[in-house]
Amino acid sequence: MATKAQFLLFVSAYELESQVIDAIKSELSIPIYAIGPAGSFLSVSNAQLEEIIGGVRDSGVSYMWIARGDGISRFKHENDENALVIPWRDQLRVLCHGSIGAFWSHCGWNSTKEGAFSGVPMLIFPIFWDQVPNSKMIVEDWKMGKRVRTEEGNLVTREEIAKLIKCFMDRESEEGKEMRQRALEVKKISRQAIEEEGFAQIDIDSFINDITKSH
């Protein structure tokens, strides 16, 4: 299918996945561009969501929870002084704020890239599709995150979640220090990608130039 295309766009940054992109370029003769992140449509089960809410609350950390639609109603009976529950916020803007110590994410591609750009360690809970390989990249390649769920389909209890969050937010642990350092390194790489001479900007400009010439 790709061999019949005129161009191939990746919603990624070359600096973060150079080996993969170079390998694909070596196999295909068409122009390939990594233009940076391009929505959320998957969600956990109601039972798992209740465990996550309970676990985050019981961990004792201060947190912001983005609850879309009628999701806010789940918090009506919660009396948690550490919680800020809101319907929407600019996720990247929030993540770049200095008070943010961690990011719980399903590892959708946009969230993955925004986590990388902000340099915030990630607690990851992939559900399906690209979220699974994205989670592998965050944990094993970038080494800036930790998985919440280790086995597909198993319900993670609030006790497990609370314990994990407490450990994850421990700023004195060696694992945490290494993870935060790696997150800062990934942040630097991500921001270099969108600078004037970064690969993302170069590829966007090249793509626009190519499609303009082709028409």
What is the rounded Rg? 19 Å
Order of helices and strands: EHEHEEHEHEHEHHH
CATH architecture of the largest domain: 3-Layer(aba) Sandwich
Mean pLDDT: 84
Low-pLDDT segments: none
Q: Looking at the structure, what is the overall shape?
A: elongated
Q: Tell how many strands the DSSP assignment holds.
A: 7
Distance between the termini: 22 Å
Sheet having the most strands:
3 strands, parallel
Query: Structural class, from secondary structure content?
Result: mainly alpha
**Beta-strand residue fraction:** 5-15%
Question: How is the CATH topology of the largest domain named?
Answer: Rossmann fold
**Order of strands across the main sheet:** 5-6-7
The CATH class assignment of the largest domain is Alpha Beta
Domains, number: 2
Helix count from the secondary structure assignment = 8
Helix content: 40-55%
Present the secondary structure layout.
Elements: E1 8-10, H1 18-27, E2 32-34, H2 46-59, E3 63-66, E4 83-86, H3 91-95, E5 103-105, H4 109-118, E6 122-124, H5 131-141, E7 145-147, H6 158-168, H7 174-193, H8 199-214
Helix pairs in contact: 2-6, 4-7
Commentary on this structure:
Helices cover 45% and strands 11% of the residues. By secondary structure, the protein is mainly alpha-helical. It folds into two domains: 2-36 and 195-214, no CATH class; 46-193, Rossmann fold. The strands form three sheets. It has a three-stranded parallel beta sheet with strand order 5-6-7, with helices on one face. The chain has a two-stranded parallel sheet with strand order 1-2. Strand 6 (122-124), helix 5 (131-141) and strand 7 (145-147) form a beta-alpha-beta unit. The longest helix has 20 residues, at 174-193. Keywords: Transferase. One of its GO terms (molecular function) is UDP-glycosyltransferase activity.
